[in-house]
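Have a close read of the entry that follows and walk me through the local backbone shapes. See right below:
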Amino acid sequence: MDSDGGREQRYFFRYLIRAVVLFTLVTLACLVLFNQTATTRSQFQFLTSSFSFSHAGNEEFGLEELLKKAAMPDNTVILSPLNEAWIEKGSIFDLFLESFRIGNRTIGLLKHLLVVALDQKAFDHCLGLHLNCYFLKTQGVDFSAEAGYMSTDYLKMVWRKIDFLRTILETGYSFVFTDADIMWLRNPFPQFYPNTNFQVSCDKFQGNPFDLNNAPNTGLMYVKSSNQTIEFFKFWYKSREIYSAKHDQDALNMLKHDPFLREIGFQFKFLDTAYFGGFCQPSKNLNLVHTMHANCCAGLDNKIHDLKILLQDWSSYISLPENERDSHPPSWTVPQSCG
């Protein structure tokens, strides 16, 4: 039989082993919890940092990350501005997104869309739609309300746009800029001019894409990043000092004749309204139309009214048998309120 001393020694070692095992388990649990907490904290800090950047809109690194995410293989992104006035249910922005969904080979382009929110509510709304969203904040300016045409806030907004687009070009990205009151009915990229650094839509198209008498509309622009386009956008933005009472489009209409453009090798090319139409000069053949713009129209309610009809016209057109679309394409029933 074991002596009392031997029995006590075995009990001691047994309790010692149990204590070591318990201590080890507790230590491992603490390490796991610490790592999870550190990871969670790191993830939270990352998300908070990302949101803080997106909210402030003032860190180039964050903007470049968003551009990289949205870009096509050739580093082209689609940019569209958004403010609170355009986010209500049934708003212009809803119609804009709907056009991508019902257009011909356009829905896949949404992943390349970067929405440039001009206020907090527009930014939150964009995030809720799971789109690529960037908050372009301008100190001392509230862009949330509808800016009346040629109002002080309107002018600040359009000139801020030009400066921001220059930033995009300087990062090495090309862009298609589109206002949200432009309906994307067909994929426009095959219809854009090849080997052209700057092409812009028109209110009135005279028939020749090189004709400087065409009336440009900056609601739709396809601009490729190059030394010439960067210099031009700097020149364009600086012109606000001369044309302080005019918007970017009026200034562009004057700058298109400036000798400086020839000096830097910059050339305009204007998009045919047969393919890139609008209410100013509607594209008559629905077999050709790629985008339609609610231009020459004042007031959100009027734009929304006619754009809804436009999308109904388009839905009726695409529901026709192909042979009927080809031989007897219908025409637009708009503009109405915008007429």
Q: What stands out?
A: Strands lie at 76-82, 113-117, 132-135, 174-178, 182-184, 198-204, 215-223, 269-270, 276-278, 291-293.
